[in-house]
Amino acid sequence: MSSNDVPTPAPTRRTVVSLAVGIAGACAAGSAFATSATAAPGEQGGPAGSKTPKGTLPTTPIDIGPITDYAKDGVYDKLVKSQHVLIHKSADRLAVMSAICPHKRCLVALDADQLKCPCHSSFFNLDGGRVEGPAKSSLPHLAVSTNKAGHIIADPKKLFEEKQWDDAASYIAIPTSAAPPPPADGPKR
User: pTM here?
Assistant: First the structure.
């Protein structure tokens, strides 16, 4: 030690605690900023106002309504928010599928001619088959039946993966008309 050096006093307890609190606060602020900047919509810490609902299927049977409610082919999304299911009607069958993306459980949405998960951009065909994205499987179909009132009832306790979609319990068969089509030149008189 030279004659010009002045000894530095030992830090006080208050100085050490203040420094530790300041460092912890800076770390917490940096972590919160990094999380909100990188989290996808709907995830914890996502951008403000962009929460995408996460889903679970109900535990009780779901009354989908009468088959006459589904006259046109396509996807019906009227029960996505309340029951987390989609209804797909094609020429020969009606199926009820989960609207919950198997990747991170966000609710998928109808996007033109496909279904899209808004959280991480998994894409599915209109029947729920996986097309691309981080989801590793298709949207499962629910067991369906018809009750005495003629309503379609979906059972969320019985799910069918894509390889099981031909199981008769996974869809309602749409009867084809028994009458033959009229001749091309019109009916005979």
Answer: 0.67
